[in-house]
Amino acid sequence: MSADRALDWSGRVALVSGAGSNIGRAVALEFVRRGAAIVLAGRDEARLQRTLAAAGAPGRVLVRAGDLAQDGVAESLVARALEYFGRIDAVACLAGGGGGDQALLEQSPAAWEGLVRDNLFTSMRVARAALPALCASRGTILFTSGGGAWFPETNARHTAYATAKAALCRLTDQLAFELLASGVRVNCLQPGLVLNEDDLARVESEESVLGAPHALRASNHTPEQAAELALWLLGSASAPLSGRLVATDDPWWHSATRAELERIQADPHAYTLRRSVI
Ligand SMILES: NC(=O)c1ccc[n+]([C@@H]2O[C@H](COP(=O)([O-])OP(=O)(O)OC[C@H]3O[C@@H](n4cnc5c(N)ncnc54)[C@H](OP(=O)(O)O)[C@@H]3O)[C@@H](O)[C@H]2O)c1
């Protein structure tokens, strides 16, 4: 596979959840820039319409708003995508996000479950609905984890988010194993800190008081950096990786050779969650 073919998505179709903001929006726009047709999914129609307008690719972008954790929504999204474009080659599950920031006893069970639903159930439902089409195209799936999955110190009051993101890591390697014979690859993105527009506005207002750069600037990534890795994981350049988690902060993937990827893929214990071993 040539480098050009790995970057060029012309003639292929990607479905992006969480496409109305921040990373999902950047992933959607990068797919359009590389020639793909895309389906934008999320709850807020107005935000999806803003991504559609920014894409500036009439006829290549479809918008479908709805709560992806609800019965039938992911299935109707996939049906519409197939009706319109005839195939699905990549599914990027970016829907989710943090929130809460409450200790377990402060958070209602409904709010806790809602966070798990928005991060984990939406991803499972979209991937499941698209699976027959992905098997036909030998396509790829991307889930999105986060540091909360394995670093408790990232935020001590984050049990729901951390649980959902850790579960997404396991969904990644378990589903990849289940799909070994199908040719469908499944990987997981760890984007690192990517401040959205509201966060950046807050940071800027604090900086105007501080008169100095905010501490978060040092660890922040742009949505485009996360999108670059997302498309690498969804594209042929990352083959044969499947069932793996890659972080924007890991520099190796930019230059990894096929032999190195094969070595990672051959290690059955590359992902160990937080298992203790002596
Ligand atoms: N940003 C970071 O620093 C960071 C770090 C690590 C991991 N992540 C993960 O990366 C992903 C994208 O992050 P982000 O910063 O781009 O998040 P974001 O700006 O909060 O966007 C999340 C998107 O998910 C959509 N969504 C949430 N629940 C949904 C549901 N039930 N059905 C349909 N759509 C739903 C939202 O739709 P609405 O527009 O309708 O609200 C929103 O557009 C998330 O999974 C997040 O947890 C982010």
What features would you describe in this structure?
The chain has 278 residues and is α/β, with parallel strands linked by helices. The chain has helices at residues 3-7, 22-33, 45-55, 73-85, 109-137, 159-178, 197-210, 223-234, 258-266; strands at 13-17, 37-42, 61-65, 90-93, 140-144, 185-190, 244-247. It has a 7-stranded parallel beta sheet with strand order 3-2-1-4-5-6-7, sandwiched between helices. The longest helix is centred in the middle third of the chain and has 29 residues, at 109-137. 42% of the residues are buried. The model has no long low-confidence stretch (mean pLDDT 93). It binds NADP nicotinamide-adenine-dinucleotide phosphate. Residues 17-18, 20-24, 42-44, 47, 67-69, 94-98, 118-119, 122, 144, 146, 191, 193-194, 196 line the site of NADP nicotinamide-adenine-dinucleotide phosphate. NADP nicotinamide-adenine-dinucleotide phosphate is lined by residues 17-18, 20-24, 42-44, 47, 67-69, 94-98, 118-119, 122, 144, 146, 191, 193-194, 196.
